Fold this sequence. Notes:
Elements: E1 12-16, H1 19-22, H2 35-40, H3 58-72, E2 76-80, H4 83-86, H5 96-111, E3 115-121, H6 127-130, H7 139-155, E4 161-166, H8 168-176, H9 188-212, E5 217-223, H10 234-246, H11 249-253, H12 262-265, H13 273-277, E6 283-287, E7 293-296, E8 304-307, H14 324-338, E9 343-347, H15 365-383, E10 388-394, E11 413-415, E12 422-424, H16 426-437
Parallel strand pairs: 1-2, 1-10, 2-3, 3-4, 4-5, 5-6, 6-9, 9-10
Antiparallel strand pairs: 7-8, 11-12
Helix pairs in contact: 3-5, 7-9, 8-9, 14-15, 15-16
Amino acid sequence: MNMINKFPENFVWGVSTSSYQIEGAVNTDGRGKTIWDTFCEVPENIVDQTNGAVACDHYHRYPEDIRLMVELGAKAYRFSTAWSRVQPEGFGGVNQGGIDFYNRLLDSLLEHNIEPWLCLNHWDLPQGLENLGGWRNRETSFRFAEYAEIMARHLGDRIPYFITHNEPNVVALLGHGWGWHAPGIQSAEAVMAATHHLNLAHGLAVSAIRKTVPNVNIGTVITMQPVVDWDIDPIGSTRLDALFNRAFTDSALLGTYPELLFDELTPFVEEGDMELIHQSLDFFGLNHYTTMRARSTPENALGVEILAPPVETPQTIKGWEINPAMLYQQLLEFKDRYGNPPVYITESGCASPDEPNVEGLVSDPDRVAYFRDYLHAASLAIEDGVNLKGYFAWSLLDNFEWAEGYTQRFGIIYVDFTTQKRIPKDSFYFLKNIFHNNHI
């Protein structure tokens, strides 16, 4: 496919990671336990029975990883801070060892002219808060605001972009409804409680950050995967779309919940909550990977499940449909539904079966094709008026891929998890060319 797509001047090219997936060092410098540490202790929860105890050892190897970002030409780095490094229980005093690590990371990023985009919550809730009810407990929202204030106070002088949550919809549905992710609960009531309390935490954190560092940019990150084949099961499709795609975006950007979910969410909503949640944001982070198909079922707590795509559909080794036209459609729909706010694609990428060849090089043509085609779709959306400001590839490094352990590789840099050797893949060099030239 021949295509040359020029991106706007000042378009932000970056890469994304998350704390539990890459940092390792789980018992270092006062870090507390998280729900993912606990979840990984149950043998059947992780495909290969691994955990993030070492992962990519980014805690100790971040200088090398930053040098690779420089070689790539990344202008920005979206990473998450581990709440339990800063407050080991999720409340109480500040652990200086955690603050010191993030100070070192920030200073190194800035020294290399890479813009830090700090995300406060990428799923790794401190276990101390889970012991008190986690996201099912309204008080956790207020503890999150205190954590946000701590991070703004200690790091806000060097952080131009703050993100409250990454994919709170995944935390709610996969963690509390289907039970595939930490904390492994299967309860419709838990999903609704977690959904509202995550949204409330977002609003409270926005207020806390603005009060502490008024001039930073604040946003949130939601993964939105379009539901296709609505006609096959319109009831299931409508419910899945409301739960996954609307309960977080509508509340943050429109100040309301999808009507379908009103009765289930109302018990958790108190006066003034929706005003707190619906605050002015400087940007919206959209994570996009694939599409979803729904089927109504009485066999799980939510009454709906996600179906695998038809076997003849192009898909990744993870079983996710490859359909770049749906990214274009989603960006246009986002523009029309939410008034065209500044949007950044904060995660996009695919798993592929990557191994070094005899020369020690890693070819990943599937990922190169994925990036090429999805970036082409993004450029078409820009041409059609979408206020798309940047693209962050998922992910910088192969990492601990949650319930899939180390069986799925999403990185543009291969990681040998035994030796921690890093090898840039072909997709790294493909993106390097785009990042430097600002076109496909």
